[in-house]
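Backbone-to-sequence.
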């Protein structure tokens, strides 16, 4: 489709994406075979239990269980729990339940991170390849993505600075791994054989050099494309001129093989072209997942798929079988926008599809705006707590090189991370709501352990109580305030806290 950029009104409004280009419907040209079941993989041996301090007991045993579609899960590597997580091994690869650091090269034990131990040798960790087939990310991906702070202007020097900052800021040590290059790295150019061509003035050595640099820091690399012919950078403002052809439709096998050959571990596939062409999302993403499987078979490198159709075609019904994560709503901020708590809350609400989520497969309420201009420390804490209680991916979107100490401490809070990364990967659910004074409960690994969020959406401070019966506990429970790191002792029947307007209190509640 050839449309000059002058005929396109490139705006976005509201929560949805509004395309004002009058388009010819092109239909779906994808003819790839359906997504193949992954083959068998073999998990590693038991990981070391963690003796972490964040609230769980130290065990971490349990044989791995078979993955959903084959593959033998690795033995559990979950310290800080009483029952062990078991090798979850979703969709193929033998995945230790939470083998964090041990995943990097399939080798050494990882580091402990608070309540849910992240240690363990052997079992494959995030994106570990236990066998051919779908990549495994047994806990929600953690990392950073370029879009929120840099828009379409992303280039190698920015990625290098941010990757360096992920290490020097301590985020890497806290468990953050992915450095994801979003829209803007490619302006839709191809050679005569259809291979993507790169502007080496911005990406010296091409995209492989960027992935290599990220890997040299012990991090993982992510890249971005669109399911349609034209990417978002054709339709909407990104900080660069409109880029026709910046999508992968018609080139799925070729493009995903290239991403894998360049060394990328993660790919986000957007939906601007797909939406404009009125493609069927399930069909398109199935073709993409199939191309990724084929690429992985050839390179041996798994590529985690991030579906980004903004919840338009109910991805929670079909994306768990195809992907690691799927967006459930529009963007928290569009290009040039500013942080807004009401959007954070509405994205959180749109992501509530608890039954779709399981280890390796996550609802994605969007990249974080924690630490971005206009957000206070309290708002940052509530934002991250909402994502943690959801078991959502933690993909920072702020400028890691310039963040202040408070933002850093929010991102690296080991107990919050442990709640997000709990190996059961459950999404917290709402258990009570009194005119916007809400209680959310997330069942954690271990015995009678719950993360609880007291959320006050009203405009004045209020006392909000969690009743232990509502979260499946008996009369007595130990309560800990996570952000203030205070043990509040043993409480009877319920626990109430005063929560400021538009704020929250995050608790660990352990039944007795
Ligand atoms: C869409 C996605 C965003 C971002 C932009 C890039 O809006 O939802 O996350 O990738 O495209 O243009």
């Amino acid at each position: 489709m050839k449309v000059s950029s002058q005929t396109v009104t490139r705006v976005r409004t509201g929560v949805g994406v509004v395309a004002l280009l009058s388009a010819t419907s092109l239909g779906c040209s994808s003819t790839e075979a359906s997504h193949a079941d992954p083959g068998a993989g073999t998990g590693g041996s038991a990981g070391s239990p963690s003796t972490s301090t964040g609230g769980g007991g130290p065990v971490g045993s349990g044989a791995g269980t078979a993955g959903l579609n084959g593959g033998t899960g690795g033995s559990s590597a979950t310290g800080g729990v009483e029952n062990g997580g078991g090798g979850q091994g979703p969709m193929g690869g033998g995945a230790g339940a939470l083998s964090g650091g041990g995943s990097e090269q399939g080798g050494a034990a990882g580091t402990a991170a608070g309540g849910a131990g992240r240690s363990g040798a052997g079992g494959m960790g995030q994106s570990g390849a236990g066998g051919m087939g779908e990549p495994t990310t047994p806990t929600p991906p953690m990392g950073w993505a370029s879009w929120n702070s840099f828009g379409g202007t992303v280039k190698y020097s920015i990625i290098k600075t941010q990757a360096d900052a992920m290490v020097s800021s301590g985020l890497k040590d806290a468990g953050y791994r992915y450095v994801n290059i979003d829209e803007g790295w490619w302006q839709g150019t191809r050679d005569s054989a259809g291979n993507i061509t790169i502007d080496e003035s911005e990406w010296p050595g091409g995209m492989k050099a960027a992935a290599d640099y990220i890997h040299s820091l012990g991090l993982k690399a992510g890249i971005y494309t669109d399911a349609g012919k034209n990417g978002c950078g054709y339709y909407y403002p990104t900080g660069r001129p409109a880029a026709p052809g910046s999508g992968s439709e018609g080139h799925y096998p070729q493009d995903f093989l290239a991403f894998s050959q360049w060394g990328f571990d993660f790919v986000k596939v957007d939906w601007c072209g797909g939406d404009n062409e009125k493609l069927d999302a399930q069909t398109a993403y199935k073709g993409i997942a199939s191309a990724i499987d084929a690429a992985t078979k050839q390179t041996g490198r798994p590529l985690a798929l991030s579906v980004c159709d903004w919840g338009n075609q109910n991805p929670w019904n079909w994306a768990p079988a195809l992907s690691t994560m799927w967006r459930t709503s529009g963007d928290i901020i569009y290009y040039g926008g500013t942080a807004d708590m009401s959007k954070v809350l509405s994205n959180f609400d749109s992501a509530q599809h608890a039954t779709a989520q399981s280890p390796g497969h996550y609802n994605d309420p969007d990249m974080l705006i924690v630490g971005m201009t206009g957000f206070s420390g309290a708002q940052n804490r509530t934002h991250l707590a909402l994502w943690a209680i959801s078991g959502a991916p933690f993909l920072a979107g702020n400028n890691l090189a310039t963040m202040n100490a408070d933002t850093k401490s929010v991102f690296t809070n080991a107990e919050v991370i442990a709640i997000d990364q709990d190996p059961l990967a459950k999404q917290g659910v709402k258990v009570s709501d009194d005119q916007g004074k809400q209680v959310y409960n997330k069942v954690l690994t271990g015995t009678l352990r719950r993360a609880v969020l007291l959320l006050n959406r009203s405009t004045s401070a209020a006392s909000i109580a969690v009743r232990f019966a509502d979260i499946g506990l008996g009369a007595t429970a130990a309560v800990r305030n996570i952000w203030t790191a205070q043990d509040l002792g043993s409480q009877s029947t319920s626990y109430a806290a005063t929560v400021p307007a538009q704020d929250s209190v995050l608790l660990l509640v352990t039944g007795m």
